[in-house]
């Protein structure tokens, strides 16, 4: 079946199984590997992307659900890594192995889009589904707040 | 189907260096003590000089005529920040401008010295060796400038990417000197800079791979894309040592995109680095492979471990520590000491199997052309990968190239190259490049597990409450069981919290009780220190409770006065001491005491009951580093116990990258809390019960402490380990805090077995 994905602003016409999780369509067929596989069961958040601006776990999202819709991956969050979250992440040296961080940032980006100045509790609730085995949680909390403050100033 | 273009590790692998390697006689792979890179490599130097490519005095440094400096990182990056740390040692010695330094990841090759990134070795094992590599290049650049200026080299200095003759105010950039320097002899006597001249070492350094990690361009094992590459997933025997006795591939082959179903050979014990065998499904993409695997029909024979039940095995271990074992440490007369004691304190501790659960499951890509094999892998151990692939394919090691990607976590799992061999076997079987992708279920169910352990501790107290005798029995299937048929531990594991614990107690005996493995046992971040520190540091707090004394004072009393603890005092003949000499790295109780005193001061120990909190304390030396931790717990609104705040105070000697040291210790707190609170792998009929993060629970953001304070106690002694030593004291500090809060003593991990957490 033909599926059209608008990924980071570019159309991709794919002839693939409509049941294929969006994750594998992005990684294996679109060639964007910034979105990670961590569990395949909606348990870790490594695969979070935006579907029409909403954070979704691409590992349990059949690609058919994304047909004709706008998908944003970590590669498309900003043209040059300059999203306030990306900047805060680098400034605070949040990543350790880095593997979970695309999912963390995409989840946080969806939060900030809705709630530009989240409380600690808002951050904890939004990111509760994103595991970090390296244990960077406290820096993630700080970085989201720093990005929120920076985002506020930019407006 | 669209295929992305080939894209290989752009940042990490720079063409050109590989050329310098061809033709070198390569030493054989040695696992044990770290071998050090030679600061001088004549073959590489000659090659570089001949082609005018600039100065390449050894395999690690390349100064190009344009002034770019390439520095090789030969150890694997898995979150510990090694790529942001080791190259800095070389660059700082050289006097390079960090902005012009490019880090190149080395392939697996014994010429780089030991590359197995484990044991918290990278800085402590290579500190001086790496500095010499940079110093050698600096001396040659200075010599080239001095010759041009007709001045004595001693009157010149190198800094800011240039050589300067201060007396005349002349300067030449590294790039301008590179070709001339390459023609000069390599100095034999390499002089290091005085430490004060190192501008970056020991400071907060930027995270080299940070930008790539936040924009999606960082390349991990599964991200390597090669034209024509297929993806494989493997149905492995549920029980280690089991095998497929029959399989029907028909339905799997009918799944669109599935190209082949390939049976893999079953391993023979000892399992070592062999793949587990099973049936592979090779397909055009991951989804097709997964769908194909779900359609496989396989009959498994469980093999020798099909009876293993981890709940039953607890009884086996308990029985083992009820009987004398092999005496591994002895001072005084424990039997008499206990017999004469006014009272005894006794406790038994149990720590279950754990899984590594690296955020990135194992993955590897291999390409085989009939003569040579090239692999890309998320591996801590590129040399073992190379050797294992060569052996599996019947090739000479020179015909196997192993590229190292970034690792999405390692923790010891990725020191074993079983999955790399799987990719190589499948590339040979199918004639196409193959990526092997482990699912999370594969990862949790087919790990090299952290062992399971039971320990029994008995202390004898005299009438005044002073501890006069200490007996420690430990039983656990050793890591050695993965490599040979043994149930007794090597000193490598016993030094981790049994042989090396300073005890100001006149009668001490430790015994290792035999325990047989029924799973693949591997090393997990901080290894045997996890369970030994848990038992010993919990037990000292139990003694405090029995006597009604302050746990901190009790700990200081048992650690004893500041001193260098000799082998004789320990009651052992030798101590591996993490591969380093006791002269350079003695067991120094002044350093134990300093971290205990500092951490309790920071946590306001004397007011430990304030605001409804309770504190627990533990100290442990591992990988030569001294760490004391205080954990604060509170009752949460939901009736659960909550970890509110943690202080971790460390003395790791000389540091390279202060910022990454802090981040390692922050991460270690979360890693250890996860295990202590929830971590448990159980097995029934030889198969792992847990399968994903649903049942192998890890700490999540809302459960994380409100604050983690990491404090570095300054010390300019030789560098010690960083990646692992933050882990061991956390679990006992937590158990001690929970005791202080609830009066309940947790001796069985995880805590979730007995309490609401
Ligand atoms: S991979 Fe999708 S939530 Fe884990
Ligand atoms: S940084 Fe390694 S899993 Fe989060």
Quick structural summary:
Chain A has helices at residues 22-30, 84-91, 101-114, 120-126, 137-154; strands at 2-7, 10-15, 48-51, 54-57, 70-72. Chain A has 155 residues and is an alpha+beta fold. In chain A, helix 2 (84-91) crosses helix 5.
Topology:
The complex is a heterodimer of chains A (155) and B (757).
Chain A: E1 2-7, E2 10-15, H1 22-30, E3 48-51, E4 54-57, E5 70-72, H2 84-91, H3 101-114, H4 120-126, H5 137-154
Parallel strand pairs in A: 1-5
Antiparallel strand pairs in A: 1-2, 3-4, 3-5
Chain B: H1 17-21, H2 42-50, E1 55-58, E2 61-63, E3 69-73, H3 86-94, E4 101-105, H4 122-149, E5 156-159, E6 162-165, E7 170-173, H5 174-182, H6 210-215, E8 230-235, E9 243-248, H7 250-253, E10 258-264, E11 278-283, H8 286-294, E12 297-301, H9 310-321, E13 326-331, H10 334-339, E14 343-351, E15 363-368, E16 373-377, H11 382-393, E17 400-404, H12 418-430, E18 434-437, H13 440-445, E19 453-461, E20 467-475, H14 491-494, E21 507-513, H15 529-547, H16 551-559, E22 564-565, H17 567-570, E23 587-588, H18 589-602, E24 614-622, E25 625-635, E26 641-651, H19 658-678, E27 683-684, E28 687-688, E29 707-712, H20 730-742
Parallel strand pairs in B: 3-4, 8-18, 16-17, 20-21, 26-29
Antiparallel strand pairs in B: 1-2, 2-3, 5-6, 6-7, 8-11, 9-12, 10-11, 13-21, 14-19, 15-16, 15-18, 19-20, 22-23, 24-25, 25-26, 27-28
Bound molecules: FE2/S2 (inorganic) cluster (2 copies).
Residues 37-40, 42-47, 57, 59 of chain A line the site of one FE2/S2 (inorganic) cluster.
